[in-house]
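Minutes, project check-in
Item: structure for the 116-residue chain
Input as provided by the requester:
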Amino acid sequence: MVGQDATCCQGLAGAPLDEERASELAKVFKALGDPVRLRLLSMIASREGGEVCVCEMTPAFDLSQPTVSHHLKLLRQAGLIDCERRGTWVYYWALPGALDRLAAFLTTPQTAGVTA
């Protein structure tokens, strides 16, 4: 879902999900369902310049470097971030549009006269 063009995909309220689409989306939401991964994604997406070295993220957590790398791998597999090795270090960035497509999926049309 995340890697697809947003124009091809209906939102949550547009139509019931088929089994394949539900499975794809579940992987993405599962990746976002962990507090460490959610914080990592936030650190990456909010970074000025658009990319962050793993060496800058690891100290923010009370976790080993391999554990942080594992969480980053799961975010990559979910299609939310990508990375590039430069010498000893790996640099991460959020994939353009990935979060926008998730937001569009979760957005429901506002109905006149209905208030939350």
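Outcome recorded: The longest helix spans residues 19-32.
No further action items on this chain.
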